[in-house]
Every structure is written in C-alpha cells, then in structure tokens.
Amino acid sequence: MKRKLALLLALVLTVMSLAACGSSKTESASDATAPTETQGAAGGNGDSKHLIVAWWGNQTRNERTQAVLDLYSQQNPGITFDGQFVEWNDYWNKLATASAGHSLPDVVQMDYRYLEQYVSNGLLIDLKPYIENGTLDVSGIDESILESGSVDGGIYAISLGVNAPALLYNKTLLDEHGIEIKDNMTMDEFIDKCREIYEKTGYKTNVAYGNGDNFIEYMLRSSGKILFEEGKLGVDSAEELKPFFDIYEIGMKEGWHVDPGIFVERNISVEQEPIVYGSSPETMSWCAFYWSNQLTAVQNAAPEGMEIGITTWPADNPKAANYLRPSQFFSVTVDSKNPEEAVKFLNFFINSVEANNILLGERGVPPVASVAEAITPQLSDQEKLVIDYINNVVTPNSSPINPPAPDSAVEIFDLIDKLEERLCYGEITAAEAAQELFEQGSKIMAGN
User: What order do you get walking across the sheet with 79-86 strand by strand?
Assistant: First the structure.
C-alpha cells in the first residue's frame, strides 16, 4: 500500500513537466469531481448508464472524440457520457488524484510508458475475459499490436492507433528558401540544417524542449542502448548521455535553439507550439518533435497558407533508433461501476467504421486493418501522408519498441526536463547535466 501511495504522489508531483498536446471547447477534466449519487462512474437507474471517458488531446481530437461519444449515445439509448480532457501535463495529475480517491473515470486514455505502473498498482481491469466471451472483438488487430497492451499475461489496454516519432516542419518556409529536408537525417546533418535555416530565415529550432525524455531514448537506441534496465540505467557512464545535452548546448551557444523563456507563459499544446505560434522568427521554430498522428492537429493549428511536412527524427543509426508504437490506448478502470458497458463502448470505438469515419485516424493508423482500409477514401491529404509515412518510411527502416518504462521513470523524466531547462538557461554545461543525470538517475533506479 505504501508503495502504491508513493507512486501516486510521485505522479502528482513530477509528471507536470512532461509535454504534450491539446485543449478543447467541451468540459475539462479540471472540472471533474467524484461521482455523485445520480451520476456515478457508470451508475444510474434502470437501463440508464452514465460513462466517464477521459483523454488528453488537441482541438481536433477533442471534437472528433466527442462526436463519437454522441454517436454511441444515439445508437444506444440510455447510455450517456461525460467526455473529459485536459492537456498532457494535467491529465496524469488528475488521474493520480482520482485514483487515490477511488474515483477514476470508467474509460481512460492510457500511454505505453505508464501502462505497467497503472497495472501494478491495481488500477485497470484485465480485458482478456471480455475478449474471450466476445464482448470485445480484437480479431482484426495484429498480435504484436494487441500484445503491446499486455502485462503479466493479462490485456489491460487496447491500442487506438499506430504511430511513430515524427519531425514535423514548416515546409512552406523551407520551400520558399530552397531548403530541402530528407528522411533519416544523421545528427550532424540535422544540426547543420538547423544552422542553415537560422542563417537563411531567422527561424530557430525547438529540440523537444520540455519533452526531451522521448528524444534521449531515441538517441540511445541509435547507439544500441536503452534508458532503463532492471534496477539501473541502461548506460555505463555519463559520457553516453552527453550527446543528448550537447545539442542544447550547441544550439544555445550558436543561437539557433529557441530561448526557453518563450515557454514561461505558454501552455505546451499544439496550438501554442513555436512551429505555429509566435510573433516573429525569433520566437518561432521551423520544426517540432512530435508523433506521426499529430500531423493533422498541427496542420489545423497552423496559420493559413502554411504547409506542414513530416520526416524522421535525426539519428546516426536510423534503423536502430526508429520504431512503431501504439499511439495511445483505452483502458477500463477498476472504479467503473459498469465495466461491461465500458468494454462495449471500447469495442465500438475500435471496430465501428462509422465511428472511425469520424475519428479518421487522428490517434494513429487504426489497429483494425479492415477499418483502416474502409476509412482511407475519407482521409485528408495530411492523413494519407501519415499512412504513407508509417508504411513506406518507418516500417521498412525501424526496430522493435523498447519495453515499457518502470515505475521510477517519472522521476527520471522529471530530472531530464529540469536538467534540460538549467542547461538552456546557462546554469550548467552539457557535461555537468549528463553527469548529474547519470548519478541521480542511478540512485533513483536503485532506490526503486
């Protein structure tokens, strides 16, 4: 019990530094409270059932998800929903608080990095019995994708889409200046491109600021390393971590990396990312380190006339670094008063062509192959570009995804972001940041 409470507290205190995307017009999870007598997690009288569904997201995701909730209610009289969402940072804070009070939503959007933690703390239900009795049809999902939601033999999460790391960039700006971007850039090629773009356009580069934990793992994969091993970091010295921090140090010294001060008064969301938001080139970035499924949202947030391109994150060994991953999952929580109805909704979400003609792969390429094929004619040019990117750029040139992060990962990720911030403000050097991450990270891993 103490270990469970410690994890929840760690999530509340540390995960706020992680970056992500999204805001929306409908009710925010910040307004969510514990279920009332008349509006439980899935309560109600007679056949009336009320389900709370929570997710993090951008404006596009929010609108499409809410439309699917409305469609399900129309087709299933008596089923109503409370759709709740916030940005990534606040999302995990809210879930941690709700889990401590046994008031988790019925259905929660889950991330690969946190799945094992939530399962080990007894917060999610095993979906395997519902698969075995036919309530949840996963026959159209590839076994490897289905397995990504498995922990200790149970299935606790169903993938909502497949995506990959993606460097999104201002194609219009670069085309105007005759600057070409190629897939599978090495790190040196990427840094040279950052210099060239800054010199020719004045636009700077945002190297995953505030979300560097994903990129450092990507870089380590390129050198055959992983960030986490059993009870320790997956590197043998601080020197193996230094190349990650070198990028920020070089960028700040040479002037082509964005100043961290621009994030002080911004919510880190798609709509306020420097690639689409800023008053001048000095406060804007030509690129964003995102995921492939976020191309549509970034394009929708971009000013009129700006075309967003997509390519791979830079790595010296692209095949070793790149990977396919479940973009997000849906999981049913132990606090749901009607888990069977929650599972029925999940089944609809992944298998209904009608629902997915609304969702249109915003969370990634649909995991059910027949559904992905059926919605293709309805996709926008950007959405078709994502499928082409997944199928023809990443899939042939990638390696298996790393195992899920351990419980102590949230503390490591928080430490990375703090070191990154101190480095960009000139308080420490890249070598000092790498040494502190190695020493403190090793203590965190050993202690957990």
Answer: 79-86, 49-56, 107-110, 329-332, 158-159
What are the backbone angles phi and psi of residue 319, rounded to the nearest 5°? -65, -40
**Which of 255, 264, 254, 270 minimizes the C-alpha distance to 60?**
270
pLDDT score, position 389? 94
Domain CATH for 129: 3.40.190.10
Sheet containing 165-170: order of strands:
287-291, 165-170, 308-311
Same domain, 96 and 225: no
Q: Residue 307 carries which DSSP code?
A: P
Helix/strand/coil for 83? strand
Task: Report how far residue 184's alpha carbon sits from residue 434's, in angstroms, rounded to the nearest whole number.
Answer: 26
* The pLDDT of residue 39 is above 60: no
3-state secondary structure of 305: coil
Query: Around Cβ 297, how many Cβ atoms within 10 Å?
Result: 27
State the pLDDT at residue 420: 96
**Secondary structure class of 154 (helix, strand, coil):** strand
- The rounded distance, in Å, linking the Cα atoms of 70 and 104 is 21
Q: Are strands 329-332 and 107-110 parallel, antiparallel or unpaired?
A: antiparallel
Is the four-CA dihedral 68, 33, 332, 74 of positive or negative sign? negative
Question: What are the helix and strand counts (H, E) for the chain?
Answer: 18, 14
Question: What does the mean pLDDT of the chain come to?
Answer: 88
CA distance 209 to 21: 13
Same domain for 441 and 295: yes
Q: What integer pLDDT is reported at residue 448 of this predicted model?
A: 67
Pairwise CA distance, residues 376 & 384, whole Å: 7
Query: What residue numbers bound the domain in which 80 lies?
Result: 2-162+326-393
Confidence band of 230 (pLDDT split at 50, 70, 90): confident
CA atoms of 335 and 271, how far apart (whole Å): 33
User: How many domains does the chain contain in total?
Assistant: 2
- Give the confidence band of 267 by pLDDT, cuts at 50, 70, 90: low
* Contact status, residue 322 vs residue 394, Cβ threshold 8 Å: yes
Report the b/e string of 399-432 with b at 16+ CB within 10 A. Answer: beebebbbbbbbbbbbbbbbbbbbbbeeebebeb
